[in-house]
Amino acid sequence: EHYSVAVIAGDGIGPEVMAEGLKALQAVERVHNWIRFDIRCLDWNCGYYARHGRMMPDNGLEILRDFDAILLGAIGAPDVPDHISVWELILPIRRRFHQYVNLRPIKLLKGLESPLRHKGQAELDFVVVRENTEGEYSNMGGRLHAGTPYELAIQNNVFTRFGVERVIRYAFSLAQSLGRKRVTAATKSNGINHSMPFWDEVFRDVSRSHPEIRTDLFHIDALAAYFVSRPEIFDVVVASNLFGDILTDLGAAVVGGLGLAPSGNINPEREYPSMFEPIHGSAPDIAGKGIANPIATIWSVSMMMDHLGHREMGQLLLDGIEEVLVEGVVRTPDIGGRATTSEMGDAIVNSIMRK
Amino acid sequence: EHYSVAVIAGDGIGPEVMAEGLKALQAVERVHNWIRFDIRCLDWNCGYYARHGRMMPDNGLEILRDFDAILLGAIGAPDVPDHISVWELILPIRRRFHQYVNLRPIKLLKGLESPLRHKGQAELDFVVVRENTEGEYSNMGGRLHAGTPYELAIQNNVFTRFGVERVIRYAFSLAQSLGRKRVTAATKSNGINHSMPFWDEVFRDVSRSHPEIRTDLFHIDALAAYFVSRPEIFDVVVASNLFGDILTDLGAAVVGGLGLAPSGNINPEREYPSMFEPIHGSAPDIAGKGIANPIATIWSVSMMMDHLGHREMGQLLLDGIEEVLVEGVVRTPDIGGRATTSEMGDAIVNSIMRK
Ligand SMILES: CC(C)[C@H](C(=O)O)[C@@H](O)C(=O)O
Ligand SMILES: CC(C)[C@H](C(=O)O)[C@@H](O)C(=O)O
């Protein structure tokens, strides 16, 4: 079986962690020798921008369209404004390919300790489903009276029934397919009085078709606090674009840090390629030092396997990661060790090959 | 010296915790017998709404206007929609009285353990300055195509130079007056591309007048994660209405919970009364049981003292709270004990009277 995978290693630590992600992918090929990944590396990043004045070719999205999946390392450099690197590469991919689900597991891996004193593997194991195409990241708005004391900026949050309903439906079917009992929605309808009450309404509508699932609507302030004080109450959390963004970085922190946190930008209908990326950024401060943790990327590769329908391979990768963490010998500095990025990747590959 | 204080005990646990706040206030009067607080209790809450069809009298704001300060317990009941209880009482007070600073200390009190394994008093001691009058809580927006598959809701976030500048200025002068070195602003200008870049610009403008202060602009996702992983880097954090709301509930969680978290809705110019309230809600689930923690309210009374210019009394109250926590005998259930709300309040009053 052949899959074509576009790889955008990106900037900063992106290429460093992606190298390990690709090693892990090759390890899978060696274990299951009937599967092949045809990799195409695309050099679309801030360096490309410096040379061409844009983040990707004009027909970049068309090029990507034909792949079975996309792997992204990290995008962003200090000398390129975010409104370019983010708005001309990551966000167009998420939107154009209707990757309306940003799937982010919050799971404390075996062998790791949570920074939360009283929480362990049993308490820290849930999934956040983040809306990924609309909401607070709308690109709509502007300024008036610039340069005067009366200057103001307006940003429109745009929530459509189409957009909200599809992501909430996904959250419910995910809970079902994972055999989990509870779907929690993040809201703020007490303070934000147009968009969030609408979000709540759609959530209640959709939940009516799932009487077997327990539902909660928590305000984002309380919900963020619960990620620290009561993470065990969550199975599947569904949140708007912004709320999901905040919750998942926070979730990453409570399970050991951004170096461990994977994500999938999923087009559930599989009409378009989905994109898998660590949720960390390009981390210019540690780029080039070879100390970035590749686990988030390798775990993202594992999520890609799941999405392509090969759950046993996804599990193989995750088992490989956990085995190395349980052994506890090879660890990058962010999780208390002295290993380099590639030592960490090699250890995981070895553990995969032993299986 | 006389001060007039309007007390809105509110709903649920509001009256329970407020009773202890008032006891603490009387204790201060007994220790410093030249000071007097003339208390006027206002029964504006969801019960008032049930009787009168509104949360406060038509001239409610006029009535409040003449007080030196306002104490609020908690507002909200399951049978009254938030858009009434919040939008017809709390938010109008915050706005009408230009309480544009919502001051929220994030400080681990002596005697308490943080849920964060590796963080103690030294790491958990900073202040969040939350914008309190505009931004994401704008009341502007609406819906189109209601009841059809094409339905959508738009919410306008409105950021004015006037509104952003005044709160950021306050954050810098607060850092100065506290002798702290660092002001951190919460942003999300990489994803939210009109309002947040504007916020960043104003932050940079204001910071230029304070070369002695170190500044950082962190995206809200990373910032929330740092509240867990690196809280020691913060001195003063300044955030928009929504971001400040989220960060302070999260901050409360990392220093032991909402039962401990106070706030001041401050009009720095003192043209209007400021309002002090615990950041927790009315908690209908535990209302009437007498087990709510009154510390957040008593600490809010302490902040009122500070604001009225009596820092030594504010300190007296805070010392009283900390002494009881260090003794560790009397504690409400949320912090691991079996004491009732009034036992906790009494213990704090006794400790104040011993000083
Ligand atoms: C009740 C609600 C609107 C309020 C807010 O978000 O401001 C509360 O959460 C708070 O923090 O004071
Ligand atoms: C780069 C940024 C716009 C992005 C986001 O907020 O979506 C990132 O934080 C993420 O979570 O993937």
Automatic annotation (TrEMBL), chains A, B:
GO terms for molecular function: D-malate dehydrogenase (decarboxylating) (NAD+) activity; magnesium ion binding; NAD binding. Transmembrane segments: none annotated. Its cofactor is Mn(2+); Mg(2+). Its EC number is 1.1.1.83. Keywords: Manganese, Metal-binding, NAD, Oxidoreductase. Residues 4-348 form the Isopropylmalate dehydrogenase-like domain. It catalyses: (R)-malate + NAD(+) = pyruvate + CO2 + NADH. PANTHER family: D-MALATE DEHYDROGENASE [DECARBOXYLATING] (PTHR43275). Belongs to the isocitrate and isopropylmalate dehydrogenases family. This is D-malate dehydrogenase (decarboxylating). It comes from Effusibacillus lacus.
